[in-house]
Write a structure and sequence with these properties.
The complex is a heterodimer. Chain A is an alpha/beta fold. Chain A is built from twelve helices and 14 strands. In chain A, the strands form three sheets. Chain A has a seven-stranded mixed sheet with strand order 3-2-4-5-7-6-12, sandwiched between helices. Chain A has a five-stranded mixed sheet with strand order 9-11-10-13-14, sandwiched between helices. In chain A, helix 8 crosses helix 12. Chain A is globular. The model of chain A has no long low-confidence stretch (mean pLDDT 98). Chain B is α/β, with parallel strands linked by helices. Chain B has a five-stranded parallel sheet with strand order 1-2-3-7-6, with helices on both faces. Chain B has a two-stranded antiparallel ribbon with strand order 4-5. In chain B, helix 1 crosses helix 2 and helix 1 runs antiparallel to helix 11. The radius of gyration of chain B is 21 Å and the shape is globular. The relative contact order of chain B is 0.17. The chains are: A alpha/beta, B alpha/beta. The interface between A and B is large, with 40 and 45 residues. The complex binds thiamine diphosphate.
């Protein structure tokens, strides 16, 4: 067991995947000597050469587009987008090209590309450094979208993403980058929890709190407060946003009958809406209260000095909990 | 200067005037002193903002140190009626457009996404998305022509537009597309690229095998390479390009060759990727030193002016320190404003929700 930050867990996961397969290569802005602005790729260029850890020209559409070409030619590119707000120049390459290559070629061409994107708010920077673009991607057929909320998952899921033959959007909760956790780096990749499975973090019988990425920690805080008040919460870390592990979610909902979905992205059209609907379809008669959402508001991320009011916190979750418990 | 073969220079790094076959300076001594004052003050502004970030008062700051001549020379060439679109680093241009330095800090402190009235100052806010604004600038310039505010032959009223960006931005699709549009429509625009040698950790070589200015020809733009640390030359080439644009002569790409003497931003650690061996060379080409030497040698700058200027810089810094700390945090409920022009029922609900949360917190 090693105590690793999420940053170093991803770093070690990347290193292990690169060592395992010479076709894995990294591309992105400032990922070489600098090691990326968050230092996730620190030391990798030195270890694996500048042909496998490639400092790209400053052009996101170019990076993703050439990653597609490299993948067509047998490589497994891992693209770093420096910040969530800088992924949009690559939108066409992602949704119209990468996502559809397999479909349009009737299975002849697949694209084993991983796109790493630090996402979410909470770091106090300027505009475009806080974004939650996951709904665009999870609404795009052909893409897989996953997010690791702790070091253990970060280490394993980045490797699973890299060895997936479908393109994977790998969302990294940037405000939790320096959070530490235990990782068994000696274990076998095949023994890791399947990439698309959700994970039940706490056991409880009164309400299910579903989240992913940076707000998993927030959900756990709220669950702890609720527990002190005698309300049992089952916190589920979705881990995969596309596909959604409905089996794990439904099992919990059948037990608790109450659900709150928590995410930072705007509520309207967000993942919470999809999960709520899927629960309606699968466990309608088990529900004791409507599925509620605690999310970012339907505005762009506001200026950083008031961002804390935009981000869901434990209090807002507890307010929602009161509502479902007293419904 | 290496790689400076066809660069326009009117004042060399030792402060000696240079004769150029095409360009000459139209600036009298008082204008030169004014440029000198601008450069000294924006360097102070930059230093103070960097310090404020270190003290935790700002979330981030992108230093301009080393690029004063490029920004002030070009910024002062703009007429009031011209319009500028700039990046997060163009504090010197903002200064020329009359933005209060404390207002500049609002963005970096995280109290506002855009802190000044763009139309009033004819400067769009700091753009963070690399290259995006080059297209906006091009469209704005197309509009100036289409609405009869440019290319009419009236040198008093014809307008031009400037788009500022860096060497890294030259790789973005948006910038390359803006070159295509500007050339196609012969839009009244000047693209002012400050090649400060670095895009965070990537040297300009990562973006281009050839001098950036050579791209101009392929797009059908006029291209000029200027010593970006020579404020007189930057002023001269920009003034001429603007005149040409306003009068219907078409777009120009200016590559101002300069150096980012500081970190990319206050979050950056340049020792990770550059060994500092170029720093000394570029210090010897400092944009402020050379003008001071020239002005001193020609007895344009005297001790009184210099000490008054130093005092002005000190009080500017003090005003920034006080002003920054006094900047109010926005009302949290303001986050719901201006998402749309028209009212939105869903946002109204969410505003009420936050309002009651805030009221509870206040209890
Ligand atoms: C679309 C986009 N991609 C990436 C970034 C991250 N980023 C911010 S500044 C920068 C380098 C810019 O270099 P350059 O254009 O030379 O301007 P400079 O910062 O040197 O003034 C990068 C990669 C961004 N802001 N926007």
């Amino acid at each position: 067991m090693e105590q690793l930050t999420i940053v170093s867990a991803i770093n070690k996961g990347l290193r292990r995947a690169m060592a395992a397969d010479s076709k894995v290569l990294l591309m992105g802005e400032d990922i070489g000597k600098l090691g990326g602005v968050f230092r996730v790729t620190e030391g990798l260029q030195k270890e694996f050469s500048d042909e496998r850890v490639i400092d790209s020209p400053l052009a996101e559409s170019g990076i993703v587009g050439t990653a597609i070409g490299l993948a067509l030619n047998g490589f497994r590119p891992v693209v770093e987008i420096q910040f969530d707000g800088f992924v949009y120049p690559a939108f066409d390459q992602i949704v119209s090209q990468m996502a559809r290559m397999r479909y349009r070629s009737r299975g002849a061409l697949s694209l084993p590309i991983t796109m790493r994107i630090p996402f979410g708010g909470g770091i106090g920077s300027v505009e475009h450094h806080s974004e939650s673009p996951e709904a665009y991607f999870s609404a795009t057929p052909g893409l897989r979208v996953i997010s690791a909320a702790d070091s253990h998952d970060a280490y394993w899921m980045i490797q699973q993403a890299i060895f997936s033959d479908d393109p994977v959007i790998f969302l990294e909760p940037k405000r939790r980058y320096w959070q530490k956790g235990d990782v068994d780096t000696d274990a076998d990749l095949s023994s890791a929890m399947p990439m698309f499975s959700a994970k039940v973090l706490t056991d409880g019988s009164d309400c299910t709190l579903i989240s992913y990425g940076p707000t998993v920690v927030t959900a756990l805080q709220a669950a702890k407060f609720a527990q002190e008040d005698g309300v049992g919460i089952e916190v589920i870390d979705m881990r995969s946003l596309s596909p959604i592990d409905m089996h794990t979610i439904a099992t919990s909902v059948r037990k608790t009958g109450r659900v709150i979905v928590v995410h930072e992205a705007p509520g309207s059209g967000g993942l919470g809406a999809e999960i709520g609907q899927r629960i309606m379809e699968t466990c309608f008669t088990d529900l004791k209260a409507p599925v509620l959402r605690v999310t970012g508001y339907d505005t762009p991320y506001p200026a950083s000095r008031i961002e804390e009011h935009y981000l869901p916190d434990a209090d807002r979750i507890l307010d929602a909990l009161e509502k479902v418990m007293s419904y | 200067m290496d790689g400076f073969d066809s660069v326009v220079q009117l004042l060399d790094s030792t402060g000696s005037p240079v004769i150029d076959s095409h360009y000459s300076s139209a600036l009298d001594n008082s204008s030169l002193l004014a440029l000198y004052r601008d450069m000294v003050l924006v360097r102070k502004l930059d230093e103070q903002a960097t310090a404020l970030q270190r003290q935790g008062e700002l979330g981030l700051w992108a230093p301009l140190i080393g690029q004063e001549a490029a920004q002030i020379g070009s910024g002062r060439a703009l007429a009031q009626r011209d319009y500028a679109f700039a990046t997060y680093r163009e504090h010197g241009v903002a200064w020329c457009r009359g933005i209060d330095p404390v207002d500049m800090l609002r963005f970096w402190r995280g109290t506002m996404h855009q802190a000044w009235d763009a139309n009033l100052h004819r400067l769009y806010g700091y753009q963070v998305i690399i290259g995006a604004h080059a297209l906006h600038a091009t469209g704005y310039a197309m509009g100036a022509y289409l609405s009869g505010r440019s290319g009419t032959g009236n040198s008093e009223t014809d307008q031009a537009v400037v788009a500022y960006f860096g060497d890294g931005a030259m790789s973005e699709g948006d910038v390359n597309e803006s070159f295509v549009f500007a050339a196609t429509y012969q839009a009244p625009i000047v693209f002012f690229c400050q090649n400060n040698q670095w895009a965070i950790s990537e040297p300009t070589k990562r973006q281009s095998r050839i001098p950036l200015v050579q791209r101009a020809e392929g797009f059908g733009l006029r291209g000029i390479r200027v010593d970006g640390n020579d404020v007189i030359a930057c002023h001269a080439v920009t003034a001429e390009a603007l005149d040409r644009a306003r009068s219907g002569g078409g777009p120009t790409l200016i590559e101002a060759v300069t150096y980012r003497m500081g970190a990319h931003t206050t979050s950056d650690d340049p020792t990770k990727y550059r060994d500092g061996s170029d720093d000394e060379l570029w210090r010897s080409r400092d944009p402020i030193d050379r003008l001071r030497i020239y002005l001193r040698a020609n007895e344009v700058l005297n001790d009184t002016f210099q000490s008054d200027l130093d005092a002005e810089a000190t009080s500017l810094a003090e005003r920034m320190r006080i002003g920054c700390r006094e900047l109010p945090d926005p009302d949290p409920l303001s986050m719901f404003e201006n998402v749309y022009c028209a009212p939105d029922a869903r946002l109204d609900e969410q505003r009420s929700e936050l309002k009651s949360i805030l009221a509870k917190m206040g209890d």
